Fold these 3 entries.
Entry 1:
Amino acid sequence: MAQQEISCGLDYTIAPDLQACLTEALHANYAFIVSQIVHPRFRLSSLPSGNTVGGFTRSDMILSPQDWNSRVVGRVSGYLDPDSPSHIVQKRHEDSLNEELAYCRGLGLPAVMLSLHSRKSNNLARILQTYFETSHHPTLIWTSVPMICHRTMRVCDEDNSNEEAWNEPWHWWTKFHECMGWDKRIGVVLEISADLPSKDIVNRWLGEPVKAIILPTSLFHNNKKGYPVLSRAHQQIVVSMVERDAQVIVSGARRSNIVYYLQYLYRLWKRRPYVVDDPMLSYARGWEDFLQTPLQPLADNLDTHTYNVFEKDPVKYDQYQKAIAQALSDLQMKRKEEMKIQEEDSAGLTNVKEIISGKNGIVENDRPFTVMVLGAGRGPLVRATLNAADITNCKVKVIAVEKNPCAVVVLAAQVREVWRDRDVTVIPGDMRQINLSPKADIIVSELLGSWGDNELSPECLDGAAGLLRPGGISIPREYKSYVAPICSPRLWAAARAASPGNAQQIEKNLETLWVVYMQNKHNIAETKPVFTFEHPSEGIKNQDGQEVTDYRGLKVTDNRRSTTVTWEVKQDNVMHGFGGYFDCVLYGKEMLSIVPDTHSPGMISWFPVFIPIRTPLRVQKGDTISATFWRCVNSRRVWYEWIVEVDNHTTPLHNPNGRSSEMLL
């Protein structure tokens, strides 16, 4: 969850007096310090640790347990390389690393920092897996990598060195993280360089679980008043990282008073675009990357709290009101045109009064338009309809259909107390099972989920199609679901651990759609459409080309869907799943959208969905990602299935027969 304040630490390359260093940092208002676990004078000899006698570092009594547990990040010795090609060095460094980690466990440090220097990290990952298995304290592992690999820069050809040098540290990190099973206790610490990479590479890092960034003091330059400041490009990176929960570590020589660095970072954070300016950011604060199970309002009745949250949307109901007003205006215009035609063709009628009264099958001019609100909840769409009627100066008869008994009580109370002078009727029951007359000129519903149809809007509206007169208007008229392949170790790890259990439960977690405000993620490719639904729906036809009807005379529809979507990969990445979105045409030009490129400004009713894959896929620049999605339906439930192909690699089919997740009819 995104932090409201920036958290900064101070890095001490050498701390002769650890207590004095911590006191200095805390007095300057730094939250923590980073220090070597082993003091240089205690550096281990070349002998295996089992043959050493006596302590190898300072006593833990120099600091209080509270300081160790919350204010010190320990850094393991930088020279340790348990993946060294030399077996002798490898064993000695492995023993030393285990000893330092064991001491960290004893101190109860909140985090331990170590450095990666190459893609070879299998033995390091094995050691840390053992450490996690045997440790009772929830220590985090911070893996430090540079933003650019200078060794690659020197070795590679001039033409390719730039891109490869920027990509190499990311490969170190993702290879190591993959060996650790994308464990959420593992995070990356990014050492910011003076030169910065392309926007695409920075955005890729924003999708990784960056726990902290290291800002060398050499990146700061003094302004006219002599205070340290960062370039605009570095400012943007700092703010972007901190927005995704990264902490800031100031490192390097003291080129200015340490207080000035912290004060500048505080000011930089406060000057960022304020969340109040964006209702979505303000609403989502505290819910970033927090997975939620999608609602099933058809199978379950929503509670008062849920209604209250959705009714606060400042945009959605305004858009609905505009759409209803436009629909009423069009119906008025259509009625006037029909009246005009009938007047011209009414030579056999005695006077205009008969025309207006509706005799002889002629259209009635003063008949109110019937608007049915299906799934009325506590009445926000009823209010939008009445407001639209006032705006267009139309007479309307509103019929509110709602199956939730608690919401029906609220609707009935509003009919008595608020809408007593309006023509509003409340009908309790399932919209698919009632039969009302007269039929509606307009039906209005808000049955959409975060992936469009995942709250069973197609099945509900098709079941209620008999309530709409021929030629009537449905609001919404059309909606589409969209997906984009994403990289997000944090979301994937959260989905994996969402419901603790055995391997079978973990597999189910990774075959389930999760509603989440995605922040710590990177889009691998652009967003593309998946399924489309329109209302009123077209019925299926038999072999003679005639529409098939059910026992009620309603058109039989088929809401099964399947589609294959492909993308070309623009840069090396790791795919953890898909981001799912939708947009909706209410009526005319009025739309609602949570697709990133067309998101309705200020709308807060829907977070996107995260669609995980069971095993993350490593993709390379130039690869083709091909994903096939199925929407499956039977008599009592609806579910999704999906499969992903990257060149010659194919994932297993996800959620076959809805074994892990489903929507009940």
Entry 2:
Amino acid sequence: MCTKNALLSHKKSVIITQIMDTTYQQICSARTVQSDKKGFFNEFYLEAKQTCGEKWLQNHFGQLKSNEARILSIFNDPEICDTVLGILENVQPVYKQKDALFSSQRRAQADQYYLLSSSGNKQEHLAQALAFANLAIIRAPAKGVDKQIDSGLSLAMAFRTRAIILLAMGAEGANGAEGAGGMAGTGSLGENALSDLKLAASFGLETQNNVEYYIQLAKAYARRFMDEMARAEISLKIAERFVGGNKAAIEACRQEWSLKKNLKPKLTYESPVLTNGENVDLKGASNLVKLVETKEKGHFIVAQSEVRTGDVILNEKPVAACLLPSFYGGFCCHCLERLVTPVPCLNCSGLAFCSAQCMGEACDTYHRFECQFMDLFIGSGMSILCYIALRIFTQAPSVESALNTAALLYENLCTHEDSRQADDYLQRSLMAGFLMRCLQKAQYFGQRKTEGVNPTAIELKVCTGLLGLLQVLQYNAHEIYQTVNKDDHIFEGSKIIYIGAGLYGTGAYFNHECWPTVARYFVGKNLILTATKPHHPNEVIAENYGPIFTKINLKERQRSLRGRYLFSCNCMACQENWPTLQKLDKQVRLWCPSVNCNNVLQFPKDLAKDVRCARCRKNVSLKESVARLIKVEELYREAAQAMQEQKVHQAIELFKEGINDFFEIAVLPHKDTLIAQLSLMKCLAALNYS
């Protein structure tokens, strides 16, 4: 019998837990606006909050019912507007500018290491040369900007220097290496060198009578492995026309070509194709799935017809996606592919692109508005979600188009509007105001009549749209990751790194379970979801939002989901409180083999004896099921061996067969099947990054 003291102690414990959960929820929410407490935005928020006072915040601002009213409040209400307007007046462009002298010095270092490569440690010296050449390119101003250094041709000269280094790496690869650090095959290096030579010419490098340029162009064409030998020969003939009698360099080039006959082209991988074609009602989704809605769960994705393990059910481009600032030097800011030979923005030195095409697409749209504020954004400490909210506007073809997109997202995706506190709304409103002010200064709205902050009608609409997006993104964005291989082996030593985040309109409809039924991976910015188990029609197809049962116990998963997403999970792993993978034994439960019976039976102690099913009330034999389970586990072993031998396609097919067979006879949790599903996820990701 419980004593009074025991009841009081229990009640106190419940209250403390509730307070801790509320605090954790507030921390989680704040981190989706400002991920770095050291940034100046936190000071802006705290000063505004102190100025307006708790009474006004709770009794007035906290009672406002629309985003429009909240934005109007921070710009017009006397309790707060002076502070907001005063601080936003100080917003100015802050970005890393070009430096011709720095570029010239780095190019000289690149040349030095290139020369050293001929005397030993070739790969190491070429890798160093490439690193300095990359720096020279990133910091070089556009043609004619600084004529006192390199006659205004720093960028063209840096591109040519890098092309020479890449061709040397390609020659090293032709002699048995893959390029410095295993970065790329000789075909990729040749293609990158060709691009650099063309860029050098476009930025002012003199090509008329330039024999060396056309020899380098010929070498680059020859190393592309794309039937470019005809163009390579044309380039050499142009060089012959300029060179006169001394044709030794040209003959040496032709002799070098003979060495590449036995080289294999670089393997390329295409983006996965949707199984059964694209669903006309769900952008980027397969016809195998459909969107449903219930009062309890809202909108979510289920199977429309039978889904098999390995079926690709989503291949979706993002509404918007952004790279984390900490990866600006390693990945393309446009397509998010890994950088080998960065191409710069012509105005700033803070980020880079993988190609002239990506640079052009970015600078013609969103980057022209964001360029001069990149370091200001970083200094503010704003989260990656704020970058995405801004990008939805800056990438749009017009302000009206962006407003329509923002309105549709706010209308259709979860925001938990009724659960937000006044503090949360204030923080997001101030961030929306800051982003709007940056757009003002970037002339996103055109030439303004005044430099003052006070927003016009259209600027207020944009600010309201930004506030809505900051709410949407908190619960609907996806982290974007890539798999990085440390060693030569695809799987051993590989790790996942999170490089950015994106908003996916259809992807956001997949509900959470603590053991997902799909593998999530990325091809560039595209979100790919592939089934990791068979699904029957109307069965939920589930993603995982982070807390996964194989690593985290039930209590911690529930706390994390309540704090981050404001719901308690009721998936099977939670209902049955599955132990973590480390604590899970190898026992398995089997389906009753009787027709139309969906009961689950414990693994028999004696296979020779029949088992009584409580649901269909039949005595059934589990011998066949156990025999099939043994075959399933053999398939898993064969798949694991194929992984060890880096036969990725073979491993995938074996895992798919084994997993499909397992779900016909048994249910989770089964340790070997869980490991098989995890391994299948690794294989699918490796297929696109190997």
Entry 3:
Amino acid sequence: MVFKVSKVDTTPFDGQKPGTSGLRKKVKVFVQPHYLHNFVQSTFNALTEEKVRGATLVVSGDGRYFSKDAIQIIIKMSAANGVRRIWVGQNGLLSTPAVSAVIRERVGIDGSKATGAFILTASHNPGGPHEDFGIKYNMENGGPAPEGITDKIYENTKTIKEYLIADVPDVDISATGVTNFGGPEGQFDVEVFDSASDYVKLMKSIFDFESMRKLISSPKFTFCFDALHGVGGAYAKSIFVEELGAPESSLLNCVPKEDFGGGHPDPNLTYAKELVARMGLGKSNPEVEPPEFGAAADGDADRNMVLGKRFFVTPSDSVAIIAANAVESIPYFSSGLKGVARSMPTSAALDLVAQHLKLKFFEVPTGWKFFGNLMDAGMCSVCGEESFGTGSDHIREKDGIWAVLAWLSILAYKNKENLDGGKLVTVEDIVRNHWSKYGRHYYTRYDYENVDATAAKELMAHLVKLQSSLSEVNEIVKGIRSDVSKVVHGDEFEYKDPVDGSISKHQGIRYLFEDGSRLVFRLSGTGSEGATIRLYIEQYEKDPSKIGRESQDALAPLVDVALKFSKMQEFTGRSAPTVIT
């Protein structure tokens, strides 16, 4: 039976502008007739013909509500647009890092390679009929579509008049196998494959699984992983239990659910409540001794949080510690790192590692695509951002489970001599040793969400204006707190990409202090209403006698300065932030 292709008349929807992470809206927006269809057709129309006709595309995501319907729609539209084959992870599940790995590594039964992917995810945002859905397109390098493409998609959504769809029946995505269809242009196949196997294979080529197995089998070592009911659960069992021998009881919330079990699949101290309590960081003491190592991933498993027993590792410290220990602990890096990079708001802990190891170092705007450019050019091996994203050049997305395996590798390496006798080197030991060598970057982020957009812009303008006279800034600072270092530099961060020469302006306002401390102010666009002001406060301390202080105490003077000299309350009307990280 040959399927038929129809042209369907449509009209544009407002606001289909994809951000760095694609298009994210409430489910009720996506389920409107033609809404998803318009965006998918606009994407096909933005790609060059050879990326569509006769091509192989991946279509999967984090399993959130509406994913299964969306996959069937995209299959039908792909067939109509001349795509040759579609690859779908079993049950429509593939983590964002796994999609990147599949594009880069997987070879189909007939020798085919994928050139792109539709990823169905809204990352760490909640899922369910009244929550969020998202779609983004990734390119043949496995990374998110660059601005040139996303701008074109947006332009197309504003003028679209018709889309193409085929009358292909729904494909059963719960069982692996190939379904063949005949169309007006020849054959069209849908291959459903195991969600985990390609990704597991890649991880085994990067890490020393044998040394991690020894660590996990030691009675001294205990471990806990929380997938927050996201797609990370599809990988946790095969990696942590089957490959590494951890008991099943070490997995928390590892069954992927369309609504993430009603929770917020964001791996931080606020939302990963169960893991935080189990690790001894909750309000009350746990009844049993907490595990030595705990970790969580977000909805699409590209973010991670790392915890030791009663100990939180900041994402900024995590990437610095992975970079400092990668060459000796992780076989993939044994011949050395090509370079390291962090997003501008992330603490400068990584900078000091780069200086010490004489590595190329890059400070980039927020957005994983900037790291991707450096990696494609062979200039960067390990990178990270303060918003719980860490990764390397094995793929072109941040990778939550990779980060967990990196920490397990470091723990395995540090403990290879003392699993039989002697005291375990813990997560806390590793972090404190790092601080005593490099100094400590006390770090916090204040988010003011849904602030009036005009007020937010006025606050930023005030901060830029102040920078015209640093002597005036220093007078204000000293008037607020005499125990804060001197401001030596102030600017609005802009980045010239060393690979393609593109310039990104207005990436945040920075105040740099003589002692290595920093204040950064950014307007963020990931929320759905109003503006979000993010304030990043970082106090550097290299005196070994002062690196063990409570974070809040060490940061208090700088917090005081930041809030008063930015006139935060006057501009926003807020006496406190919405969220403190």
